[in-house]
Amino acid sequence: MVFKLLLLLPALAIAKIEVELSGIFEKDLHLAFSGEEIDVISDRERDSFKLNDRNVKTGVEAYFGGWPDDVYLRSPTPWGDLFKSYGWSEVRRTLVPKRGRILSMTSEPQVVMQQIFENNSSKPATFNVGISQSLQNTMSSSWSQSEDLTIHSEIGFDFVIDFANIAGKTSMVFSSSYGSSSQKSQTVTVGSSSHVDVLLQPGQSVLAELHATRGSLKVEMEYEASVSGDVAVNYNTPYKGHHFWGLSVEAVMSKAGMSDHLTSKQVIEVGFFTSSNVVVYDRKSNDRMMAIAL
């Protein structure tokens, strides 16, 4: 029996950060991640990194020795745009996945459907006891810790999970937006798509149960946002021989006692069904008559 579940939640193609999980469920899963999201710092991100004018000027004075009249983190600026004129780098925010861990994974067999079949005729008859049921595979994403960042691309997840002692695998592809809690689901059908026949004697009644394994997985991802680039500085009265200077934002923040990185945490929970089978019991004796993997 080969069972493959494909859970599609919005497209992975636009994601710049990707998280991959592969291996054997509950035995040997491997978590890998890659990519980064880089953009010129936004006003919201200036607030998150506490890069207001006063803090930046304080850092410039501590690092360079003179209180500046103006500081700029990005284009445009007066005087013909200092970043373009001098080839300085605008301050950019970079978001990268730093570490990930599997918090929990469990599997539990469940009876997802029951149906009675009864031969009310006076002759033996063959009944199709193949049953199926629509179920929900789910994914939720929540943030236990997040900063106010302007992230335009989504974070993509690609899970390919094998199961020990069970043929087939579960594949899940989805994406989520930074900092936003979300819940998504997809309806899947488990059970038989073909005939599962049993011969019933006159008056015989059987109970068919559809069993499936409910798997759950919880993963925590930690992301780090950092800033890099130059602070464009203006002194109305030339300082050290010049009006304009380009200073490392990391050095300026360090001298001001500010951190140039922020940490965010995301928890992803996935619930899915796999490994379905039909078990048939005689209702009079309660004996199991047959069990068929689907």
UniProtKB/TrEMBL annotation:
Keywords: Signal. The lineage of its organism: Eukaryota, Metazoa, Ecdysozoa, Arthropoda, Hexapoda. Gene3D superfamilies: Proaerolysin, chain A, domain 3. It comes from the Eukaryota. Residues 1-15 form the signal peptide. This is Spherulin-2A.
